[in-house]
Amino acid sequence: MFDIKLIREKPELVKEDLKKRQDNEKLKWVDQLIKKDKDWRHLQFKVQEFKKQKNELSIEVSKLKKAKQDISVLLKKIPAIDADILSIEQEQAKLKEDIDYYLMRLPNLLHESVPQGKDDSENQIVEMHGKKPTFNFKPQSHVDILEKLDIGDTERAAKIAGSRFYFLKGDLALLDLALQRYGVDFMVKKGYTIILPPLMMNRAAYEGVTDLNDFENVMYKIDNDDLYLIATSEHPLTSQFMDEIIDEKNLPFKLAGLSACFRKEAGSHGKDTKGIFRVHQFHKVEQIIICKPEQSWKFHEELLNNAKEFFSSLGLHFRVMNICTGDIGTVAAKKYDIEVWMPAQETYREVVSCSNCTDYQARRLRMRYKTSQGNQQVNVIPHTLNSTLVATTRALVAIMENFQDKEGNIHIPKALQPYMNGAKLISKHEIK
């Protein structure tokens, strides 16, 4: 959410940012916002003037009463002033509603290092890690591997729940749990506090962490309740501090959420309709940091480094992408993606999204922290950051496609073997 002071004082900065995003509709909003804010402040001045008149009348009435003089004429003026104040305040309320609508939907200001681009085809490669696997056979897709090893079933899941749901069976179910537990242990060693969050949130909290106008179509709403199934644990872990003033000494918060996640994947029809890469339900270990503004860019790199280290430890080849203006979305000021090489698909696929949201979410959530400046206590808006550590179904796809052998077995990454009772291989009939 934008601070209205920024619109008042630096409208050209906001306009230039929207031009980078090529968002012509919201570009028009800036001048409309300036006018509505000017009108609101003019009405505020009028309200103060009427209140001043009312106060002066009250003082005069008090004086006349003490002097036992007639106050009837003055008393008749007060209801008229009250009516004027009420009328103006109603007009102000409508303006405030319009102003808040714009402020809640203008996207975050982009960091200067975000590349210009029209869509994901113009995201920039930052780093390459590991080596592509080589095969002396044609690698199978994970969809075929699921069926041949009998470790997943999407057809029966579709029968009872619809497309993009799945059963994980036997060894693959254990491997999903291994990724979750390895991810949790990985984050604990990094000094993060593990959180198991609620899997539902109310609308007010959700509007604090994202623009529901854009995001609501990918979320599951609970009928007849003010609740949504969470799309990521980022949302409850961040919004838990809504309307709070945090003690400065408690910052930074370094949290890791483990949860199921639920997404409609609206707008992705025809993409990944088979298999388990793009699904409606999955498990994820998510990284969250809430910190002082001057710390956030350092922590953005820390979150990315955690994710890079995690995927490197699995032995996967991947690249880091700096997401461009046309693909970054509303909330982040800067975003990195990690994309893993998928040999059967012969392309890189996104497995990690790592964002610095600066003060955008905290302002929407009315989150503050208290700091001392001289002899005064001042409330400051913190910065919020988030990053995937691992979304398990996407990591499973990467493992199946990268670590398959000619016989159709899956070699378990060394880092996960302790969580698989020491097994090194997933074969058709058993873990070996």
Name the descriptors.
3-stranded mixed sheet, 2 domains, 432 residues, 8-stranded mixed sheet, 13 helices, elongated, BirA Bifunctional Protein, domain 2, 41% helix, Helix Hairpins, alpha+beta
The total beta strand count reads 17
Number of domains: 2
Report how far the terminal alpha carbons are from each other. 53 Å
Count of DSSP-assigned helices: 13
Give the radius of gyration.
28 Å
Largest β sheet strand count, sense and barrel closure: 8 strands, mixed
Quickly name the level 1 CATH class of the largest domain.
Alpha Beta
What is the chain-wise order of helices and strands? HHHHEHEHEHEEHHEHEEEHEEEHEEEHEE
What gross morphology would you assign?
elongated
